[in-house]
Amino acid sequence: MRDALCQEYAVPAHNFLYIGRFSEEKNIFTLLDAYNKAIETSDEWGLILVGSGPQKRAIEEYIQKQKIRNVLLPGFQQKSEICKFLAISDVMVLPSVSETWGLVVNEAMAAGLPVLVSKRCGCYPDIVRDGINGLSFDPFDKDELYSKIKEIVEKKHDLRGMGEASLEIIKHYIPERAAEVVMETIKLVLRESE
Q1: Is 78 helix (H, G, I), strand (E, B) or coil?
Q2: CB 91, CB 116: distance < 8 Å
């Protein structure tokens, strides 16, 4: 199922995922620069940016101008479609310089993903355990974000184990939503395997 979805969206086998508004406080340009530098010698990883907003056109132009490879911009997606992007992703990234909480991190963890989260996100101290279910970084330090992405690309972390830890941690925070996301993903997987 995952391979079929990767083919459908023309993305690599491994992907970083951002879901949210395309606006200044989300720090997407820093993410793009760090990702681009980290994958210079690898075609195995992609970046999926789900969402829309005032910076959409500038982001599209920047990707083209900088020739950043393997970036998918599927636009705004309904909740029912988000599970597809969670299913083809390996790590959720939230690079915001300001974020009250970052509910999308909860949702990614409920789908069994490791998370790479800015220390400026409200959820960071509560649900991100560095080296256990993900990694954190200073959103104003492009080099730190680059080094975290590079570590992931170079397989220096057990992403499967981190994803399992995410599920364990998040079940204590939003059991109803966690069950809903997991069930949506399972239904999608079962439907695709038929």
Answers
A1: coil
A2: yes
User: 23 lies in which domain range?
Assistant: 2-193
Angle at 162 between CA 171 and CA 33, to 5 degrees: 115
Task: Indicate whether this model's pTM tops 0.85.
Answer: yes
Residue 23 to residue 38: CA distance in whole angstroms: 23
How far apart CA 121 and CA 27 sit, in angstroms, is: 12
Q: Are 18 and 95 in contact (CB under 8 A)?
A: yes
How many domains are contained in the chain?
Answer: 1
- Distance from C-alpha of 77 to C-alpha of 80, rounded to nearest angstrom: 8
Q: Is the model more confident about 79 or about 181?
A: 79
Is the alpha carbon torsion for 10, 12, 15, 21 positive or negative? negative
| 36 has a pLDDT exceeding 90 | yes
SS3 labels along 135-165: EEECCCCHHHHHHHHHHHHCCCCCHHHHHHH
Name residue 136's beta-bridge partners: 117
Rounded Cα distance between 182 and 67, Å, is: 35
For residues 77 and 22, is the Cβ–Cβ distance under 8 A?
A: no
Specify the CATH number for the domain of residue 159. Answer: 3.40.50.2000
The residues that bridge with 71 in the sheet, in sequence order, are 47
